[in-house]
Amino acid sequence: MRQELMSLPKTLAEDVAKNLVMVAKLLDDEPEQAYQYARVALRLASRVAAVREAAGFASYAVGKYSEALAEFRAARRMTGNSDLWPVMADCERGMGRPERALAMAGEPEVQKLDRAGQVEMRMVAAGARRDMGQADAAVVTLQSPELASHSIQPWTARLRYAYADALLAVGREDEAREWFAKALEADQGGTTDASDRLAELDGVEFVDALDPEQEADDALKPVAEPEVEEPKVEEAEVEGPKVEEAEADAEPEAVEPAVEELQSDEEPKDAEDEGQDDDAEDSADAEDSADAEDSAEDVEPKAEARSEDQAGLPEKDGDDS
Q1: What whole-number distance in Å separates Cα of residue 290 and Cα of residue 28?
Q2: pLDDT cut 70: percent of the chain above it
């Protein structure tokens, strides 16, 4: 690819290279954005085979199989390389033409492929068989020395996964579970969902706590109103004295001053009453003393009068007797 870009002007080559880097970076996680970068690179350098190939893979990732097939064919014409033959056959499947994909599996170009390419072509052919309703033939198509090999290759996990899926399609569930487990064992890069398929067969369901779709569904669910229990009168009556006792125990100092205030309020009243009683007694004593003085004055004149009367009487002559 570098040699092809060197044929372009320096500034143009740099722009094309930047777009191709973004395609490779976003292809797996953000295929739509990768597709946009690929279209930009294609407008800038449509005569570069690497650009046509990148545009083909970007179109294939977003399901634009007709565009992808056109780009792959253009890249193959430019290079004369057959490495894109399996993905071209899969584009035929995507366009609803599995018979053409199956025909491509028997073409001489397959013999020019390396081992990985031949395994890929075998999986495409098995998929075409299933598209045509030939599930048992798909199982037979995948049975190969590469499937029976115990060595782990970059394509081993995908081949075992495809075989397990084909077994499950014909109702051989126990064997399918075994091969899903073998696929998971070989899937060191996480290229398949063999673990999820195993869990599904075992009846285990995983829930993603951070799934935004699940959170949105939960947000749309109506929230049940909480039930309010009516207070029981009997319990309130029982608890009332306890609260008062607790308050009395918690604030003993506040109760004593109140009692003292009550006592202080009562004492002045007693003093006033006592004072009034004393005044009444004093007045009564005064009246008694006044009456006594009046009676004494009445007695004294009488006594004086008697003494005067006695003084007026003639003295008895004792000698006469």
Answers
A1: 130
A2: 61
